[in-house]
Known about the structure:
Strand order of the largest sheet: 1-2-3-4
Radius of gyration: 29 Å
CATH topology: Pantoate--beta-alanine Ligase, Chain: A,domain 2
Helix content: 25-40%
Shape: rod-shaped
Strand content: 25-35%
Number of strands: 4
CATH superfamily: GSPII I/J protein-like
Structural class: alpha+beta
Amino acid sequence: MKTQSGFNLIEIMFALLLLGLVIGVSVETSTGDLFAYNRARDAAMARWVASNQLAVVQLKGDFPAIGKRSGDADMGGITWQWQQEVLKTADDDLRRVQVSVFRKGNDKELIAMQVGYLANPNPKPRPKVVAP
Length: 132
């Protein structure tokens, strides 16, 4: 009687099953890593857009009026949409500036938000406090 050499059908099917499982797991892991990378990249660029917009407001040198503004900015090959809101604070000589950044056309998904404060360059005179 001759001895069989090579693999039988069951062994080949089992090897293909294991190979398929390994490839499936590695593809799923790679996809998750790519998604996390894209999300981190977008968050970093959106924060830069928000920081740039805050810098623009600060460099104007005037005291911003209360209200909302919006606009677009290009960063990293992506067009971003920003929304700026200037709010009143408890101190009349201080404004809160909040900048929210979204992907262009998707203003429901906030990517980044940054807050800054601006002081009035010409504050109102304050009464002198006399120590008792």
